[in-house]
Write a structure and sequence with these properties.
alpha/beta; 9 helices; globular; binds nicotinamide-adenine-dinucleotide; NAD(P)-bd_dom_sf
Length: 255
């Protein structure tokens, strides 16, 4: 498959959260292919180190893994200081991708569980953005891409907190786009449909569910991680200079 290369992304300093596996790994790989300098934050050591090794041999600018539990705001702040020092300057592109779609019933939710799920699915989007705003202001602009989800648009079952967080991400995207647009910082949300990632295939995939999804999609094929990554790199590039404050669906037309 051929991939578009955007000259404006060459040598850009890019941070991808949750870049060790799934869609995040495809986003890391796509930015590396653009000639960008990529740092990715995750807690999945094995997957992340494997991705580092895999891309080390095949790319001129291999990405670097940083272990960072995004539920900790202190860890986020410390990690961005290290990344900035290692990459030799401010961050140009931030992709807020990390999340966790654990299922639960309404009655199972405790105060502690609510706080924990919001921390893993929503809170770090704001604090990672906060960590790069001054860099982007100093550079005269930048791009922040948040990963949303089609789930709450469809009101899927047993995902109340995840879907609340994902709805919040769209509100946060529009708010940040408004507040940061005057500094040339664009903020967008990419909304994936049902994407064939290792976690989805392991935990939630069934032939019946796949048939149901394909039946509802306009295009009768599964969305792959690279389909989502393609939208992320486009929105990060200067070719998307007038795109901000919106949601961009990559869902094969799931209705
Ligand atoms: N896969 C889908 O079908 C789908 C659909 C809609 C939206 N999305 C969204 O796309 C994004 C990527 O999804 P995915 O399917 O690749 O997810 P995934 O669960 O496969 O990968 C998420 C990554 O985030 C990391 N992560 C989780 N908690 C973390 C923490 N506390 N600190 C640091 N890293 C952490 C994980 O280790 C993992 O590498 C998410 O925002 C997800 O909500 C995915």
């Amino acid at each position: 498959m051929s991939h578009t290369v955007y000259p404006s992304l060459r040598n850009k300093r890019v941070v991808v959260t949750g870049g060790g596996s799934g869609i995040g790994a495809a986003i890391v790989e796509s930015f590396v292919r653009q000639g960008a300098r990529v740092a990715f934050l995750d807690i999945a050591d094995d997957d992340s180190k494997q991705l580092e090794r895999q891309l080390e041999s095949s790319s001129a600018t291999p990405p670097r893994y940083y272990r960072c539990d995004l539920k900790s705001i202190d860890a986020i702040r410390e990690t961005f200081v290290r990344v900035r020092a290692d990459l030799g300057g401010g961050i140009d592109v931030l992709v807020n991708n990390a999340a966790n779609d654990d299922r639960h019933t309404v009655q199972e939710i405790t105060e502690k569980y609510w706080d924990d799920r919001i921390a893993v699915n929503l809170r770090h989007h704001l604090f990672c953005a906060q960590a790069v705003v001054e860099d982007m202001k100093a550079a005269g602009g930048g791009a922040i891409i948040n990963l949303g989800s089609i789930s709450w648009h469809l009101a899927l079952p047993d995902l109340a907190i995840y879907q609340t967080a994902k709805a919040g991400i769209e509100g946060l995207t529009r708010s940040l786009a408004r507040d940061l647009g005057t500094f040339g910082i664009r903020v967008n949300c990419v909304v994936p449909g049902g994407v064939r990632t290792p976690r989805q295939m392991k935990l939630w995939h069934t032939p019946d569910e796949e048939a149901r999804m394909l039946g509802l999609q306009c295009i009768k094929a599964r969305v792959e991680p690279h389909d989502v990554a393609n939208m992320v790199v486009f929105l990060s590039s200067d070719d998307a200079r007038m795109c901000t404050g919106h949601e961009y669906f990559v869902d094969a037309g799931w209705r």
